[in-house]
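Question thread 4412

I'm putting together a teaching handout and wanted feedback from people who do this every day. The idea is simple: show students a protein as raw sequence, then show them the structure tokens that encode its fold, then repeat with a second protein so they can compare. Below is the first pair exactly as I plan to print it.
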Amino acid sequence: EVQLVESGGGSVQAGGSLRLTCVASGFTFDDSIVGWFRQAPGKEREGVSCINPSDDSTYSANSVKGRFTISSDRAKNAVFLQMNNMKPEDTAIYYCATINYYAEHVCLGNGAYGIDYWGKGTPVTVSS
């Protein structure tokens, strides 16, 4: 059974940091593009960042550039999202997903297409 499991969410004050982890089971990340998406209450889901295993290239949303960093540890079959200098507008449920087409509009879109698997999400709350 294929599973993506996110962890590392929680509550933090503005300016603080969290590190999210996505671990896969049932398959390996070796050839999989992996992305992080988020959905805030009452808002559409949006792509945050994704990483391409072929060259470790990444896409990141403008709203998180310079603050969030995506990385991977293929040996651990894990992808991470380091979130620094967090803001209240980062509050959302964060999901990891495997993406079948590496393109900016897919990685940073609303996740309506181009996604093979989703995790169940981990909540992040940033207080001011």
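The second pair follows. I'd like the answer to focus on this one:
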Amino acid sequence: QVQLVESGGGLVQAGGSLRLSCVASGRTFTLIDMGWFRQAPGKEREFVAAINWSDGDIYYGDSIKGRFTISKDNAKNTVYLQMNSAKPEDTAVYYCHAQGGYDYWGQGTQVTVSS
């Protein structure tokens, strides 16, 4: 099993920045990739970004390309999401996700972007 704990959510003004962190623990040697999804009220969960734990390949969702950056620190078993140029439509609960034979999810962290 892998446990994921997110942090860094909060309130930010439109145009501002926020950085989310997700720490993995447990059987982290099984990790294939880690990333982020988000879910706004009344909407389906949406893919945001992912990074391959071994080779660092990165994937982004279309709605955040050019504004958000995903990165990782293997030594700390941590993945980050740097959110720049935030928009009100980025308001959502952001979930950390990991793949390693199974799908793992964090508890989510609320991000609110005020206009």
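Top answer:
Good format. For the second protein you could add a caption like this: The mean pLDDT is 96. The chain is about 0% helix and 55% strand.
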